[in-house]
Amino acid sequence: MGNLVSYDEVDQIMVEAWGGIGGLEWNYKFKSPIKEILINHGDVIDSIMFITMNEQGDRIESPRFGGNGGRRDKVVIEETSFEFLVGIKGRYGNYKGNLVVKSLSFVTNAKKKYGPFGKEGDGTPFSFVIKEGGAIVGLHGLADSYLDAIGVYVNKLTVPKKDEKKLEPNEPIVEEIEIHDKMDVMKTIVPRSAGPWGGCSGKGWDDGVFCTIKQVQVHEALHSSAISAIQIEYENKLDKSSFWSQLHGLEHGAKKTTKINVDGTDEFFIGIEGYCSPLNDNGGQDTIRQITFYTNKGKYGPYGIEIGTYFSSSAARGKIVGFHGKSGLFLNAIGVHMEYF
Predict the structure, then answer these.
(1) Which of 2, 84, 72, 73 lies closest to 35 in space, CA to CA?
(2) 72 to each of 37, 50, 108, 187, how far by Cα in Å?
(3) H helix intervals, the chain
(4) 330 by DSSP, 3-state: which?
(5) What DSSP character marks residue 100?
(6) pLDDT given for residue 175 in this prediction
(7) Disulfide check for 294: which of 46, 74, 271, 322 has CB 3.0–4.6 Å away?
(8) What is the CATH number of the domain that holds 96?
(9) Residues 202 and 283 reside in one and the same domain
């Protein structure tokens, strides 16, 4: 019996990448079973390549996605003809001023974990593992000198009809489970990043991931009609102590500060929306001009003025567990870390 993974691109689902926003876009969709993953790594993941094998037994190599640094390790997926990728795990964080993928592990349906490669211990964790009924059939992301970001393409498994061929003894029987839409896939992501939305200027920041967000303070620059800064109070998971982020942006003379308090249990943040546009007081750079916060119980805002391009986080079932973005004199961009239910 052949491999149960379908490589039909029509039914594939793209799960957005984890990591930074630098580098060039890349994607590689498997046309046949993956046999090897080549990873160059050191303090971070420098690059990644994939080798598949077609029905004629020919090895097909992907391009190298990333730079030339680091030492090379190889993942060989060949325990059985039915072994395939079902998950990736890792961390991303700041390295030489850029957000990049710092460590990677790969998980197969044979209950095997390959890795970690790179440097574990710091950075924001991410994890995507399909429990049953699907497989990873490609990857995508951003890369330049390093692997800046990585995401996956997912497809459901196909099971031959019983009257077509009798199953051989000891062959795995896979129960077919439909992956109806992206929402079903997202249930296994802890956490997932979205954004940032806004401008490309300013210093990048990432608060990380926490169990609870207790308060958000929004600072409006009244003379500029823009959001000048944001600051967030988080709760640590282990000891339940409070932690304040840095002030992302600057406080200005004529300002208005709004405090949004939630308990994080009965009420929690689920999404944001707003507007961004160039601001003369910020050197003509795109700046967050208005922002609104949504919780499972209601809406806070809008704060600021509705000017420019609209943005919004997804309406998926989950909660915000952290923020990231760019800032300088003002809040230039903002994104969220999500934990899906």
Answers:
(1) 84
(2) 10, 13, 21, 33
(3) 182-186
(4) coil
(5) E
(6) 30
(7) 271
(8) 2.100.10.30
(9) yes
Residue 197 sits in the same domain as residue 336: yes
The CA distance from 91 to 234, in Å, is 20
For 28, residues 6+ apart whose C-beta sits below 8 A from its C-beta are 50, 62, 63, 65, 138, 139, 140
Higher pLDDT, 179 or 211: 211
Residue where one domain finishes, among candidates 156, 172, 205: 156
Residue whose entry in the numeric block shows the structure tokens 């990728």? 85
pTM as predicted: 0.51
Contacts of 44 (CB under 8 A, 6+ apart): 70, 95, 100, 101, 102, 118, 119, 146, 147
Query: What is the tens place of the pLDDT at every residue in 149-166?
Result: 998 888 887 655 543 444
Interval 17-32: pLDDT, tens: 888 878 888 999 988 8
Confidence band for 10, pLDDT divided at 50, 70 and 90: low
